[in-house]
Automatic annotation (TrEMBL):
Enzyme class at the top of the EC tree: lyase
GO cellular component annotations of the record: cytosol
Alphabetical list of InterPro entries matching this protein: Aldolase_class_II_sugar_metab, Aldolase_II/adducin_N, Aldolase_II/adducin_N_sf
Coiled-coil ranges (or none): none
Keywords linked to the UniProt accession: Lyase, Metal-binding
Xref: Pfam families: Aldolase_II
GO biological process: pentose catabolic process
Gene that encodes the chain: fucA_1
Identification of the protein by name: L-fuculose phosphate aldolase
Domain Class II aldolase/adducin N-terminal residue range list: 13-189, 232-405
Length: 431
C-alpha cells in the first residue's frame, strides 16, 4: 500500500479520528488498544494510557520525543515499548494499530491466524501474516517478541492470547490493513459455521490483481442537478454502508446510472467512508472523468447497465455473512421469510472471476427478476431501480444471510414451500 499524497492532517487528529472510527465500528473497547504515528522528525505520537477510547480529544494524544521526553497531559499508552520496538525493527513502517477486535482475538486465543486468501483484496492489503508468542502486556519481552515477528517481514501480527498489531506506511494504511484483517477473520469464522471453506490459489489471486480499467480521459461539462444529487446519494449510502459494516474501506463499488451511456461510480484507491461528491467518477462510453481513477469494477457495472435498461444502480460489496456463503459451496436459500424473497428472488452463484472479464459476461448473471448474486470468493452483487433500492436490497441480503447462518446452530431450516412462493409472486406481481 502506498500513499504518495502529502498528509496535511496533524498526527493528533489522525489518531483521534482513527480511534473514534475503530471504537465506533466496535473493533476495540473503552480501555483496549492503542495507535501511534512515527513522524519525519522521529517523534512518536501515541494514544494515552487510561483514557476513554470513545471520547478521545486531540489534546489527549501524547508525543514522545527521540530523547525520551514526553509532551502531553497524560502518560503514553503502557504498550509504548512495543510500538518503539516495531519502529526500530521496521524502518519502513510509520504507523501502528493495536486493538482487540473480536474475530482476531478469537484466533489469538486458539493460537491461529486467519487465511487472508479468502479474497484477493484481503490477501493484498493485509500483507504477510504472522503470530507472536505471549508475553505480559507492557513488558520489554512483549516488545521483543512482536518486533521479531515484524522483522521477519510480517505486516499483520496476531498476539497470542491478546489481540492484533498491524503496521503501515501511514495511519490510513495501517487502519485499512487492520480492518481488512478483521474482516477476513470474521468471514472465515462465519463460513466455518456453514461448511468447508474455499480459499484462492495463486492463479486466481493473479487474475484479480492483473485486472485493469482502460478508459480514455473525459473533460465533463457543467453538472446537472440530477448528477449532483446522485453524487451526494452515492456518498451518503457508501458512508452508511461502511458504518453498518456492509462495506469496508478498501473494497466494494457503488454506481448510479445518469443516462443511456453514462453512469457515476465510486473511485479506486480511496477510503470508502471518507468519499465526497467530488471524488465520484463520471464514466461515459469509453471515457472517464479526467484526473480520477474509476473503480476497477467499472467495466462490470457498464456491462450490466448496457444489457439491463431498468437497472439504475449497482453495488459490489462484502458484507460478512453474505460473503461467508461466497467462500463455501453452501447454497444461499432466501426462501426463508417473505421480505427476503420479495426483495431478492432466488440469488444465483457466480463462478470466480466472471466479474473481472471485459467480455460483459457478468451481465448475464443478473436481471430484473434476479437482482442479486453471490460472487464466489468475492462478496455479492446487488442491483436496484434507485440508489436507495440497491442499498435496501443489500441490507436485506446481509440480514437474511446472518439469520440463515444463525439458524444453522439452532435447528433445521424451514424454507417456505412452493405454494407460498407462488402466492408472493402473485400478490407482489413479481416477474
Amino acid at each position: 500500500m502506498t500513499n504518495t499524497a502529502r498528509n496535511l492532517v496533524h498526527p493528533r487528529d489522525q489518531i483521534m479520528r482513527t480511534m473514534d472510527r475503530i471504537y465506533r465500528y466496535r473493533m476495540t473497547t473503552t480501555s483496549g488498544g492503542n495507535l501511534s504515528i512515527l513522524d519525519a522528525e522521529g517523534n512518536i505520537w501515541i494514544s494515552p494510557a487510561r483514557v476513554d477510547k470513545g471520547n478521545l480529544t486531540r489534546n489527549d494524544i501524547v508525543c514522545v520525543r527521540p530523547d525520551g521526553t514526553i509532551e502531553g497531559s497524560h502518560a503514553p499508552s503502557s504498550e509504548f515499548p512495543f510500538h518503539q520496538a516495531i519502529y526500530a525493527a521496521r524502518p519502513d513502517l510509520r504507523a501502528i494499530v493495536h486493538a482487540h477486535p473480536v474475530a482476531l482475538v478469537a484466533y489469538s486465543i486458539c493460537q491461529q491466524t486467519p487465511d487472508t486468501r479468502l479474497f484477493h483484496q484481503a490477501h493484498s492489503v493485509c500483507g504477510r501474516v504472522g503470530f507472536s508468542p505471549y508475553a505480559c502486556p507492557g513488558t520489554q519481552e512483549l516488545g521483543e517478541n512482536i518486533a521479531a515477528t515484524f522483522k521477519e517481514g510480517c505486516d499483520s501480527v496476531i498476539l497470542e492470547n491478546h489481540g492484533v498489531v498491524v503496521g503501515g506506511e501511514s495511519l490510513a494504511d495501517a487502519f485499512q490493513r487492520f480492518e481488512a484483517f478483521e474482516f477476513a477473520g470474521k468471514t472465515h469464522i462465519k463460513a466455518r459455521q456453514l461448511g468447508p471453506v474455499r480459499v484462492l490459489d495463486d492463479e486466481q489471486l493473479e487474475m484479480a490483481s492483473n485486472r485493469g480499467v482502460d478508459f480514455a480521459s473525459l473533460e465533463p461539462g457543467s453538472a446537472t442537478g440530477q448528477e449532483q444529487e446522485l453524487r451526494l446519494q452515492l456518498c451518503d449510502f457508501v458512508r452508511r454502508g461502511c458504518r453498518q459494516r456492509l462495506l469496508i474501506s478498501t473494497e466494494g463499488s457503488f454506481s448510479a446510472r445518469l443516462d443511456d451511456t453514462s453512469f457515476l461510480i465510486t473511485p479506486t484507491q480511496k477510503d470508502r467512508e471518507l468519499l465526497c461528491p467530488e471524488d465520484i467518477v463520471l464514466v461515459s462510453g469509453d471515457r472517464r472523468e479526467s484526473g480520477k481513477l474509476a473503480s476497477r469494477a467499472a467495466r462490470a457495472h457498464q456491462a450490466i447497465y448496457d444489457k439491463h435498461p431498468a437497472v439504475q444502480s449497482i453495488v459490489f460489496a462484502h458484507p460478512v455473512n453474505a460473503t461467508a456463503f461466497s467462500v463455501t459451496d453452501v447454497a444461499f436459500d432466501v426462501r426463508t421469510i417473505p421480505e427476503s424473497y420479495v426483495f431478492l428472488r432466488d440469488v444465483q452463484r457466480v463462478p470466480y472471476g466472471v466479474q473481472y472479464r471485459n467480455d460483459g459476461s457478468i451481465a448475464e448473471k443478473i436481471s430484473v427478476s434476479m437482482p442479486a448474486a453471490i460472487l464466489q470468493n468475492d462478496g455479492v452483487l446487488v442491483t436496484g431501480s434507485t440508489v436507495l433500492d440497491a442499498f435496501d436490497r443489500l441490507e436485506v441480503l446481509e440480514s437474511t444471510a446472518e439469520a440463515v447462518i444463525n439458524a444453522t446452530v439452532i435447528g433445521q431450516i424451514s424454507a417456505m414451500p412452493a405454494s407460498v412462493i407462488e402466492e408472493l409472486r402473485t400478490v407482489f406481481k413479481l416477474s
